[in-house]
Amino acid sequence: MTRRIEADSSIAVGPAAAPELFDFAARMHLVEDQPAWSPQLRSRSVLVQTPKRHMADPSLAAALLGAGTSRLLTEPRTLGFLYEGQVVHDLRVYAQAIGARGVFHYRDTKGRDEIDAVVEAADGRWIAVEAKLGESAVDAAARNLLRVTAKIARPPSACVVVVPTGVAHRRGDGVFVVPITVLGA
């Protein structure tokens, strides 16, 4: 990061620049960490896992990249990161409104199994959430949620795949498919 800043400007930047810039962005509420989640109350894995970092508002990231609608549609991977950030943002708003403990991400200790977002209530109940851009990705996301949550001792209250549009419904395997537009309804 420091090399890129130096290349793009005439400012000499030291190795402490990246953490200082992130600290500044955090104090300005431009970025938010999504901490790791553990199904157990006492777990070292939460302490050693890196939080996911999201822009507080994903449209800020798109604006900083100079990415309009047409450009993002040609780069689905970038759009997917921004969409996941928007889903996490919305989940945080709704979780705070209901007094939930928070919105976390889950990754097992080997880094093989992960869940985009885990919303945990104050009483320990939780839901597993995957954010997917298209209906074609729902089957794989549902299978992943069911496979990963089956390995966790405390079962989730629900497994949810959040998509951009469509009709909210419950699949035959019990996984909910919910458009982002009806998350808080």
UniProtKB/TrEMBL annotation:
InterPro entries: DUF4143
Xref: Pfam families: DUF4143
Domain DUF4143: 20-133
Xref: PANTHER family: AAA+ ATPASE DOMAIN-CONTAINING PROTEIN (PTHR43566:SF1), CONSERVED PROTEIN (PTHR43566)
Protein name, entry field: DUF4143 domain-containing protein
Species of provenance: Brooklawnia cerclae
Lineage of source species: Bacteria, Bacillati, Actinomycetota, Actinomycetes, Propionibacteriales
